Amino acid sequence: MTKAEFQKIHDEMKALKAAGKQDEFAKKFVTKDAIFMGPLHEPANVNEAAKFAKSEMMAAVSKGEFNITIDEITPIGDVVIERCTIHAKVASGDKTGWSLCVWVKDGGAWKIRNSCTTFKVVPSA
Fold first, then answer.
1. Which helix H or strand E contains 107, and what residues bound it?
2. 82 and 6 in contact (C-beta within 8 Å)?
3. Cα–Cα distance, 30 to 121 (Å, whole number)
4. Is 2 exposed, middle or buried (0-12, 13-18, 19+ CB in 10 A)?
5. Over its length of 125 residues, how does the chain's per-residue pLDDT go in tens digits?
6. What InterPro entries does the entry give (predicted)?
7. How many domains is the chain built from?
């Protein structure tokens, strides 16, 4: 897989999330035993992450504009390690973040097995 091929996957995932189709997103792009780690929640399985995505806290965040740039992909057989930079425009301002994702082949399709995302925190003055 190339960066361009994974970018197409990210574009499709972004469209599903924007349309509020979390269940379809999970079926198509997430393994059943996936774990998501992020700054706003404890490590979460696919069901917990979908529930969190529909929460009030995420409602404000989901209205933002997110652009993902794939910095690097490292294929290892039927596994790909992907590192990305995230640029977000949300109500509280512009944010920069990063993700590290483990993708695996599942039923012939690339799916997320583990995902860890973080954002830069600007210290208070």
1. none
2. yes
3. 28
4. exposed
5. 789 999 999 999 989 888 878 889 889 999 999 999 988 888 999 888 878 777 776 666 667 788 999 999 999 999 999 999 999 888 778 889 999 999 999 999 999 999 999 998 776 65
6. DUF4440, NTF2-like_dom_sf
7. 1
Tokens of 113: 């097995």
Strands 109-119 and 30-38, sheet pairing: parallel
- Classify residue 39: in a domain, yes or no: yes
State which residues form the domain around 32: 3-119
According to DSSP, residue 124 is labeled P
Looking at the whole model, is its pTM more than 0.70? yes
Which among 57, 47, 101 has a CA at the least distance from the CA of 79?
101
User: Is 111 part of a structural domain of the chain?
Assistant: yes
The DSSP symbol for 121 reads: -
Asked whether residue 31 is assigned to any structural domain, the reply reads yes
Residue spans of beta strands (DSSP E) within 1-125: 30-38, 41-45, 65-76, 79-90, 93-106, 109-119
CATH number at residue 17: 3.10.450.50
